[in-house]
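Students often ask what a 'structure token' actually looks like in practice. Rather than answer in the abstract, let us consider Aminoglycoside phosphotransferase domain-containing protein, a protein of 324 residues. Its sequence is given first.
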Amino acid sequence: MDNTIIAQHALAQYDINVVSVSPIAQSGAAVFKIEDHRGFLYSLRVHKSNSSTLEKMWTSPDMLDSEMLWLDALNRDTSLTLPKPKRNMQGSFITQVNDINCTMLSWVEGEQKQYFTSEQELRSTAEMTAALHHHASKWQPPSSFTRPTVNRARIQNALELLKQQGLDGLLDAHDVQILETAGEKAMDLLDTLPINKLTWGVLHGDIVPPNIVFVDGVANPIDFGACGFGPFLTDVAITFTFIHPNARQQYIDSYGKHFPLPNDYVAQIEALFISLVLIGMRNALGMPESNNWLPTHVEKCASREFGRYANGEGFLFTGTPCWE
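Now compare that with the structural description of the same chain:
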């Protein structure tokens, strides 16, 4: 059953009069834009990934229901503009079609971009991220809440898959060795981080320009599909993969005005940056045609951020980013 047919079956379980169904994107899930007879817009997600290496946990009912619970709490407790989860006619956030799970959210209007285009966008994104962390630092998830954690096991799994690619000759073995050295160093630091309400909790997990809609320069978060537990600075680290080193201090300053930074925030962000790029590479391994671009990406990372980190040099505010 293809995604469009699954979407049609799922929509029949919601109390809306559908006028149009438009496919929008396909990554961790197939996303459809839905319009009803009143002109209201929704996002229907069919949770089938196009990456064969994406961890299966991301599409389980418990995981998806927990994502919806946090979004529901954010809509209730904050003034942020973000997707609002919609229950089906059975009162559930999760709609099943055969063995495929689907979820429905309100559509958030605004402009999506492939990269940040102004200082205002950076400042607003930092303030929005701080607002999410402020809520998470106060919010007590229910006992049923289940989301992944940024931890050694996931980073180690990424390294194992990348090492196998090196052994098979699909990635340069020397590049992979640099990734491994940097990854081991990052994991060692993350193992030492304290867990308390001001440093660790539920986080978005993928605050990058394609997952933000901008309205008059104001950042509104969407796509909470990667949310989970971890150091709050995880969200800053993933955003920094889209910010040039010479603009990162400005971002940190804006964030720090609204949520406290630990004294060693630079070391933490660098370790998280390395860890998240490795997890991203892991997911990319299962994407169609990744062999056309991943080896070059790995080579750039190894010669830039990862190489400097493995050698004990800082990279957060200096050097050439891996995308250049």
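One point worth highlighting: The longest helix spans residues 265-285. Ask yourself how you might have guessed this from the sequence alone, and why that guess would often be unreliable.
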